[in-house]
């Protein structure tokens, strides 16, 4: 089995997992894995398919601009519209995989804290790669848009190597890691953290804490 086929199988399996959680409703969301760095080559899930029904063939290879490259088995396949942001994140962060889902908690959190969502003193932060105590973690929020170059610039402007996530307001969240499993573990922990932040907001505000 080729590297691309293996990547396609892994992307399909992870997509089905997130669809089952309700984080990739309809055809929303997309995942990617890095195949090579010089030049950058990223395998991204195709556009317009139910993410719970993907197969190992539902993947397309893109370059650093997010466009499909000619040298692949199916160069006519259409990559996700957000492939350009996946490639930008992979290039800037050095990540081996990027996950983009439409889980509700991150989007709601961004509505409450559009300048960034602060997290601290929560055990689950260790699963996100940060300390459980005495470590202020701010998840950046950027404005939504259809131009991936603009979104990429906004992501890069707020990028911190120790915070592997960005929320796109009124859209969804991107989380990345060394590989798909690493990125998934980070996403699962961060979704819990953001859900906790949203659901305890009124209690915290009554205490006079932002």
What are the key terms here?
210 residues, alpha+beta, L-fuculose-1-phosphate Aldolase, 35% helix, amino-acid biosynthesis, MethylthioRu-1-P_deHdtase_MtnB
Describe this entry's structure for a reader:
This protein has helices spanning 3-20, 83-93, 104-112, 148-157, 180-199, 201-206; strands spanning 30-37, 40-45, 59-62, 97-101, 117-119, 137-139, 141-142, 165-168, 172-177. With 210 residues, the protein is of the alpha+beta class. The protein has a single domain (3-208), classed as 3-Layer(aba) Sandwich (L-fuculose-1-phosphate Aldolase), CATH 3.40.225. The chain has a seven-stranded mixed beta sheet, with helices on both faces. The longest helix has 20 residues, at 180-199. The model has no long low-confidence stretch (mean pLDDT 94).
Layout: helices, strands, pairs:
Elements: H1 3-20, E1 30-37, E2 40-45, E3 59-62, H2 83-93, E4 97-101, H3 104-112, E5 117-119, E6 137-139, E7 141-142, H4 148-157, E8 165-168, E9 172-177, H5 180-199, H6 201-206
Parallel strand pairs: 7-8
Antiparallel strand pairs: 1-2, 1-4, 2-3, 4-9, 5-6, 8-9
Helix pairs in contact: 2-4, 3-5
Q: In a few lines, what is going on in this structure?
A:
InterPro entries: Aldolase_II/adducin_N, Aldolase_II/adducin_N_sf, MethylthioRu-1-P_deHdtase_MtnB. The protein is of the alpha+beta class and 210 residues long. The protein has helices at residues 3-20, 83-93, 104-112, 148-157, 180-199, 201-206; strands at 30-37, 40-45, 59-62, 97-101, 117-119, 137-139, 141-142, 165-168, 172-177.
